[in-house]
Amino acid sequence: MSMQNFDELINREGTSSYKYDLRKSIFGTDDLYPMWVADTEFRAPGFVLERLQQRINHGILGYTITTDAYYKSIIHWLEKKHNWGVKKSWIKYSPGVVPSLFASVLAFTNPGEKVIVQTPVYHPFYYAIEQTGRQLVKNPLVLKNGRYEMDFDDLLSKIDSKVKLIFLCSPHNPTGNVWKKNELERFSEICLANNIIIISDEIHADIVYKPNLHIPLASLSDEISANTITLMAPSKTFNIAGLNSSYIVSSNKNLLDKINYFFEGMHIGPNLFAPEATIAAYENGLEWLEQLTCYFMSNINTATSFFEANMGKLNINKPEGTFLLWLDFRKYNLPQKQINEILIKKAKTGLSDGTIFGAEGEGFQRMNIGCPASLLKEALNSIAGAFRSI
Ligand SMILES: Cc1ncc(COP(=O)(O)O)c(C=O)c1O
């Protein structure tokens, strides 16, 4: 396979891009390096674009189903990439991981019941619980020697008969953690012992840096599998988030049907591009993903060594997975608002304010490094320049 040119700069302004075309309303200015929303600046792989083009050339854009080829491509990917054997009957299409989070809360809890999240965490986890009138219970992660760890004692202390569900983010956004086998085992053991259903958001599963290894939680044992719903998608990996292509996996038919009830009931089936892109990506994408992962790693190395050399007060731990850096500005000893202002107004860089991921994100910013190295370097220089005299 020829190498994709990840250095290519593609203008996305005016393409209804969330990341670009919402800058003015989010940051108050369009003049800003957008390093916030978690899509990347990379063209989707040629084999995906070609398949979509063929579909367009056919000319008829009617109602769409999920065919055997769709399920086969997912089964193939999970086997090859994650060493996880799943059956066709375990898989259902979903329009997105976030809709599935909402559907799972509605399916498995009643208003007033509790759902646990491990904070800081991807902000829609909060919305799915709070906007549906359920109680959010925090089991904060603990930062120990530069790595976030799960706090099992705290988790046990938070469990009561009202806790029905827990959201796992694996790999973890925003910290970049790739959970280890022993962590996942202890986590699942506690959930099983307390009849808590696990919703495992594994959307970042494909982007993991060696020697770290993503282990699908449900692959640990039949018992864990029967208590887990896994949410996955090709969207982060192949930069096709605009296609609404995601899927739910569970060996427990009862759990799967209860979530699927919402999507099927509302006729939220796949738009015709979603299965096409998924099939093309999962049938052909392994080598392309290797190239992408190398590019991400190189960008991560560039950013970490740049910050070490130029911003001594900034703490940064290399992520084990994801294309997100979790930057610790706490040594600057500035209020969050002021850090945001310096980044936006002086550095002209739009990062994700750490506090959107919960109060535990105070003093932190999340930076998306999924862009050409030249753009990354411009943004890094701009950030260092803005903080030079501080
Ligand atoms: C952990 C996590 N889950 C879900 C999503 C979004 O999923 P979707 O676009 O399929 O709703 C993101 C996007 O940033 C994410 O980081």
Structure in words:
This protein has a seven-stranded mixed β-sheet, sandwiched between helices. The mean pLDDT is 97. The chain has helices at 18-21, 23-27, 46-58, 68-82, 97-108, 124-130, 152-158, 181-193, 222-226, 253-265, 273-284, 286-310, 336-346, 373-387, and strands at residues 33-34, 91-94, 114-117, 135-138, 142-144, 147-149, 163-169, 197-201, 228-232, 246-249, 315-316, 324-328, 349-350, 352-353, 364-368. The radius of gyration is 21 Å and the shape is globular. It is an alpha/beta fold. The longest helix is centred in the last third of the chain and has 25 residues, at 286-310. Helix 3 (46-58) runs antiparallel to helix 11 and helix 4 (68-82) runs parallel beside helix 11. It folds into two domains: 18-43 and 286-387, Aspartate Aminotransferase, domain 1; 49-284, Aspartate Aminotransferase, domain 2 (3-Layer(aba) Sandwich), CATH 3.40.640. The protein has 14 helices and 15 strands. It binds pyridoxal-5'-phosphate. Residues 38, 96-98, 122, 169, 173, 201, 203, 233, 235, 241, 246 line the site of pyridoxal-5'-phosphate.
CATH superfamily of the largest domain: Type I PLP-dependent aspartate aminotransferase-like (Major domain)
CATH topology of the largest domain: Aspartate Aminotransferase, domain 2
Find the count of extended strands (DSSP E, 2+ residues): 15
- Kindly report the average pLDDT value: 97
Count of structural domains: 2
Structural class: alpha/beta
Strands of the widest sheet, in order across it, are 2-10-9-8-7-3-4
CATH architecture of the largest domain: 3-Layer(aba) Sandwich
Q: What distance separates the N and C termini?
A: 47 Å
The rough form would be described as globular
| Strand percentage | 5-15%
Major sheet characteristics: 7 strands, mixed
Number of helices: 14
As a whole number of angstroms, the C-alpha radius of gyration is 21 Å
Q: What is the CATH class name of the largest domain?
A: Alpha Beta
- SSE order, one letter for each helix or strand: HHEHHEHEHEEEHEHEHEEHHHEEHEEEH
Low-confidence stretches: none
The hetero compounds bound to this protein are: pyridoxal-5'-phosphate
Which range best describes the helical content: under 10%, 10-25%, 25-40%, 40-55%, 55-70% or over 70%? 40-55%
